[in-house]
## 1
Amino acid sequence: MVVPVALLAVYDLWARTAGDFFFPPLSEIGSTFAEQWLFARVATDLLPSLARMLSGYALAIGVGVALGALLGFSRTWATALDPVLQFLRALPPPALIPVSLLVFGAGDSAKIFLIALGALWPVLLNTVDGVRGVDRTALDMARSYRVPARARFTRLILPAALPRIFAGARTALAIAIILMVVSELIGADNGVGYLVQLSQRGFDIPEMWAGTVLLGLLGFAFNALFLAVEKRVLHWHLATTGRGPAPTPPQRRTAPTPTETADARRP
């Protein structure tokens, strides 16, 4: 915490001495943040933004894992869908804002579509790599023991691919937050991104900085929550890679001595 606190102290000292209109001191930004984002605009702007972001992120996770598992299993589907996926992947989501407004209108559906489309690719590609990276010897042994396909997927393939899926989901989370702001810059009447842009256009600089600080805090909080979930779900993987506590080795049971056996048989 020393470096962030030192940077904030240096900025506040510089802002107070420089007197620049575009860089207000921390006290002014903090008072505006408390006034706007602790109570006043939570229900009208913060919660709608979070609902759009979480909906698009959940859609990206669901589609990415399902489609990635299919492409990782089947080389035929991967070859057939590769041109379409590469074309869609090359399209930057902000460039599709006019198309999404034309197709979905100016409501939340267009914004959720943009967030889901941008956050889809890290999850999809990591799922494909995770499924294809499963040990083939383990798969062949499961087939030789006639383990059903559903059990092979839930008990063998999915756990083996989970570390890569989580890596893609963490990258997708940052992209979802960025696209939440981008999607609210055009055709929106509420949201954090809309208010930041409105404050910038109206030269309400403290409110603009307060919205920017809020976005940074949201990114920090969601990343911390994601790491907590990852630590709980992938504790076995983190322990083997040295990023978590080592698993407790099972205690070996020793055979009883003749004296202990005789004592146990006594009434």
Note: The chain has a mean pLDDT of 85.
## 2
Amino acid sequence: MITSPTSLDDMRLALAPALAEAAVWDGWSETAVRAAAAAQGVDPDAAAFAFKDGPMAMIAAWIHAIDADMAASLPLERLAAMKIRERIHALIQFRLDAVAPHKEALRRALAIMAMPQNAPKALKLGWGSADAMWRLAGDVATDYNHYTKRMTLGSIYAATLAVFANDESADHADTRAFLDRRIEDVMRFEKAKGRLLRPREEMFSPARLLGRLRYPAR
């Protein structure tokens, strides 16, 4: 049971897990909101008002609740001993485990987020989750890498969710294999990008080599 939320945002976050459970049966609807509120001892009318903006507000609350649980369960100090690819894998796997009990709600949420009118909000939510994961993984980039990393991870996470939503393999083995391949692709890309963007003096230059051969250092 939820103890008196102090704000509508608090109410949305507190109700999100129960709402996801109700959405398995009732979809992302006011019926699900009222069922979740009743189960958690919250005034159903107050809950309906908190989610008056409709399904995307409900889905956003679920995503924000997962973001918060992820940050609490996997702080940077816990991930520090891992390699960067292991950190990203652990963070995405945490999110997959969080939605696993509510796969039907996930499928319905993905369908709603894919609607053209919901694309801006869906992209913003995806960016926020990717940003949260990179920050927990220890990323401190402030240049354009900040943006490319989040766009890349956001696309990987979205694709992995789509695979996961329809994965019937044992222990979601197909999703795990898909995620491993995508992370490996990103690591290769980041290494290649790092080589291309090394400081000019660190890169091999045929012209500089010929100059040194012609005018050897004394």
Note: The chain has two domains: 1-52, 75-202.
## 3
Amino acid sequence: MEYTPGSSQRGKGPSLDGISVRGIVALAVVGIVILAGFKCIKTIEAGHVGVVTLFGKVRDQPYEAGLHLVNPLYRWTIYDARKKTHMERAMVPSQDQLQTTVDVSIQYKLINTMAPKILEETGTADAAIQVHLVPKLRSVIREQGKSIPRAEDFFLEETQQRLQTSILTELVSYLQPKGIEVEAVLIRDITLPEFITRAIEAKKEREQAVERQKAELERFRTEQQQTIAEAEASRRAAEEQATQVRTLADARAYEIEKLNKAIGSNPLYLQLQAMEALKEMSKDPAAKIYFINGDSPNPLPLMHLGQGK
């Protein structure tokens, strides 16, 4: 059989180690399509917003959380639009030229619809906070502190409330157009100059000593009032008892007086009493009893006692 070089490859394309170039190209195309398909799908996490640029131009419409089919040529910047807290410590001068340290917490979040403006004018979210929020906050705190007469006035509740309200109003007015929404301003701590702190502590100690003295005086006054009340109650009880004794004595005297009057007007009562006495005496066998009538020299028997003259 005659062998002709190249006859076995007749009708087929070129190959590389048994794999045709056409097959390699097909695989590359499929890979590119798959990669492009992934690049066309973008997922934005919850609480975030996406901003895209195409050839350096920022797209005005942001992408909210969810799944999106997009241009694979987009370049993405993702912003966290959830609520956050920024804490700031500032030295605040009052009208008495004293510096008071004030710790403030700012609750804020980025405005979703203004994320493209933030990217175009400022950059990232951290850059927006450092460029807009922090400098303005420090400036407002210092300016508001100048309206406070004395450093110790920072501890007054009305002063703190006024500070929080004024700072919030200023920040909202300034930061809203920048794409930052401020929700609350909270004063966390206030540190006065050391010598004022010592003076306040000494004043509190004096006030506490006065309060203790007042409490002791009130306790003593209460005890004295209780003693007086008890003495008054005892006096009233003694008076009531004396009144009862006096009433009983008066009743007894009246009874005796009435009895004496009755005896004086009725001699038979004396005879009756004598008979009762003789009755008791008669119980003694050794007793001898004689009855003498004043009008007769001879003794009278008992039966004649009480007979009329």
Note: The chain has six helices and ten strands.
## 4
Amino acid sequence: MHVPPVVANGISTDHCVPGLPFVDDTHVPLDDPQALEAVGRGAGNGMWGRWDEEYLDGSWRAFTTDPVHRGLAWCVRYHPEFGRSVLLVRDEDAASFHTLWHDGPLLFRSGGYWWDGTTWYRPLQVWDAASETYSRRPVKSAVTVLTEDLLQSGGDPSRASVLRAGGVGTEPLQADEWKNHLALWSEFRAERKTASAISACVVGLTAPELATDVLVGLTKMAELAGMQPATLRRAMASKRSDIPQPQAVVGGRRAWSRPVIEDWLEQRFRSTDSVVATMASKGSSDTSVGVADLQAHFSAQFMSMLWNDPEARRRWARRQRNEDAVRGVSDELAWHTAAELDRIVPVDALSTVIRMAVMDEIATSGKSNLALWGTEQGAQFFGLLTSVTQMLDWLIRYRPDQAHYTISGIIGEAERRFQVPRAITVRSLRTALALDGQLPEDAYERFFQRALPPDLVE
């Protein structure tokens, strides 16, 4: 998860990104997300806008292209209790910010550390595929830094100014200079009588893991990852790099929090490529042990068929090297491969999986029917996921004998476990295959005429 760079703070923000100037945002409707969206949405000329409501807590997020400076956009994250962030970003980054703010984060600091109003978390890196969310890792001993803490050390508002969007520079402000801008922001809030108290305005966080003396440089990071520094630099330059953003720049060099690096290494350990590597065959990182075993089996079988048999070996004589001879060899090889289907696909196990998948679909349909009609038998058929239907269709086409027993088992189990009448089960299977199967309906009809129990054959 990479947080795009922020160009400037909006002067109306509650939460200030340190080191960035404040820009006049009073020309856009920050209090009305629908109106903010309308500034850019459908306006043409490269403009766009969007807003979304977080339904559980009443917060919302929205963005719009700036109506004057089309290369910039305003992003707003509002929470009824914790205030709002108003950020000026590059227009191309607005949608990314909008997405990052979904499902909890209210602001980001220190290279992806984020705050949900009560707790600080490390950058989202470790993917939990079961819940389809990133694992949330709280920061130990995190302390929230508020603007009131910084304002106590002074700042001269007369030495700063509220900028226009087009007048923002690219270099961050020095610490003493930014305090002047922060003091000007505080005066603006007092004049506008902004509701959120200064004591509720967040600047960032401090934590033991973010102390400058414990941050890790690129060379050490490469060592922890088992990589050469040059390799890590090249990886970081890639547009698809998953390497986390640095938490700070110390002495002109990028530096990372060690727990962030550890999360990154954990995600690499859990990645699909890492999982594939555990099943790689000896001598090839791209071939799984199963594929290698299958290749070895067919290689030995084909060698025996083409060379060890004297009759077959004669086909290699020059006078027999013609199209018909090659086609004959090809047909034999294809037949031997097709005949080994059970070695390629564990058909018995697949049959059980299909039957259990259909049972789950019936159970799910029963619960839906109970909610809709007050009875689990309210519908006259149950739906099947396309993927389940496709596997049943595969079994019918490749192993109709096994499909015969599988369908009979489905009909019987649905009747015993869920009291689903046989006719409804058959109608459901026929409907699913008609929609997502690869065979014509008359082919399925001929199959069902022979495969169904006697009382269901029309």
Note: The CA atoms of residues 157 and 187 lie 8 Å apart.
